[in-house]
Each structure stands twice: as structure tokens, then as C-alpha cells.
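Subject: sequence -> C-alpha cells, single chain

Hey, anyone have a minute? Need the predicted structure for the following. Not urgent.
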Amino acid sequence: MRKILFALFAAVCIPAVAFSQKDTLTGDAAKELLSQLKIDNTSFLSSAGHDACKCIDSITLSTKKSKAALTREIADCIDAQVGTYQLMMKMFASMTGKGSNNISLNQDKKSNEYQTYYFEIERWLKDSCASLNQAVASNNEISSKHSMSKNDKALGYYNKGVTLLRSEEYGEAIPWFEKAVKEDDKFAFAWDNLGICYRKVNKLDEALAAYNKSLEADPDGITPLQNIPVVYQYQKEYDKALGAYKVLQAKYPDNPEGFYGSSLVYLNNEGDYENALTDMCRAYKLYVSARSPYRSDAEKVINMIYSLMKKEGKEKRFYEILEQYQLKPAEK
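Reply:
Had a minute. Here:
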């Protein structure tokens, strides 16, 4: 079955650096040599991915670093490998007779060609690089005036809870966060983490209560807004989950998580493939704009929706929605 990948329509390829090859092995001789050396094009992707992963591993995760800043640093690590990976892939194609002997590197980051190589490395990282997944999952958001507490006692309890939370000892962390919010009931981050721990131990009503207390302290808090619809889904309250995602979308229209989440509700619980695709296209474009590695997750869901709509004879409608969002399938 064909695999569908997605790219923006308006990209233009601009070759920036040109190389010429002379006395290059081609045809059967090149293929034989590459076979003896056990070299294929997957090894180039693996090499680029490992180097990018090492770079990401060196990124410092700080609670004072915004999600956007962290995403930019990850993108820089991937960008650093695109040129080498692109060159090796083109040289490989040339040696095996599948590409030109005149090799040009495209360094225009907005072009389809550059993004193809970038996304291939990004997909490899999302599947294979633990450092990447740890970085994108970190809760690094810009603090509001109520995010942290000025109460030293509350902060002490909070820090003990965070240590346990990071080691996934959720039940043990709960009493410390409870003590923190008892000392300072406007301590939004403590309410957030309390909600996370409650959800992890399946105390869903308590999790909702904690998230709502966080919103009382900070009505714009991103963590409770993202997590409240997740709790509703655990409770099988899918209409409430969609409503909560709409609130997130309204407050943060440039945040792809609201659209990604609502798409999954439409897909998995409503069987509404068209709305699922519409919201996932929105999420995909926002991930691309932010250069977020979560773009590859959105891409996988779009591929899944394609398969489901094709089975129902709605392939034409699938492409119409893609065109509406200026996305196009590229067979690979």
C-alpha cells in the first residue's frame, strides 16, 4: 500500500551549493562495490539521526526555557545534519545510476526538497531518539505571575513532589503537592502537577478538581487547558472533551495541541473522519510552522485517516480537505 507524505504547496527549490563529480563509479560496478561495503541509503539516515540525537542530548532542559526556545534548539540540531545527509543521498543516487552526476545542495529551508530530508531525519528521531522524546515532553512553558509560589515552605514541598514525579512515583508525590497548595492555594504549577499525579493513579475527579483550581489561579494556564480534555476522554465524556479542546483552541489558536487532540476524539470516538482530518491538517501546519517534531505524529494520523476514508470510498473528499489546507500528498 502506498505511503502518503505531506508538504506545503508553495515551496520553491533553490540550489545553493553545486558540486561536480568526475571519474565516478556508476551502474553495475557501483552497485557491486556498495554491496560489498554493505552500504545502502538507510545507513545515511541512521548516521544523520544518531548525530542529531547526540546534539539534542546536549540541550539543557530548564524550567525557565520556553517550549518555543527548546523547539528551535532541536530544529538547529536537525538542520546541522540536513546538508550532509542530502549530499550522501544524492551521491548514492548518482553512483547507482538513479541520480545526476552534477550534484547540487538545496539549502532553502522552506523548499520541498530541503523539508523532505529534514522530515526524514525528524521521523527517525521521533521513533529512535529518547533524548528527543524527553525534550518535547518536558513541560517548559513561560511562567505567569501565579505559576510559582513566593512561599518558601510551599516551594520546599513542591520541589520534593517534583523529584518524585520525575521518577514516576506519582502516588508518593501527591502528598507533597497537596501540602504545597495548602500552604499557597494560588500555586498554579503545584495544582498542575497534583492534577497530573491524580490522573496517573486514576483519580480522575480529583485530577479535574486540581486542574480547575489551577485555572482559578491562572486562567490562561496551558497545562490544565491541555489536560482537562484528556481526563474527560478517560471518563468517556467525549462531548465534554471536544468542548474543552475548543476552549484551548480559542485561547491558544497557534497551539497545535488543541487541534491534534480534537482530531483524535473525532477519529477514535466519533467516527467523524472529515472533522478529524480537518483538525489534524490544522495541527500539522502549526507543527510545521513551529518546526516541532510532533509534526511526524500528525503525519501518521493523516495517513491513518486516508486509509479509513479510502475504505469508505471518500478518497476524493480526503484530497479536497488537503487542498483546502494547501497540503499535498507526495507518494514515496
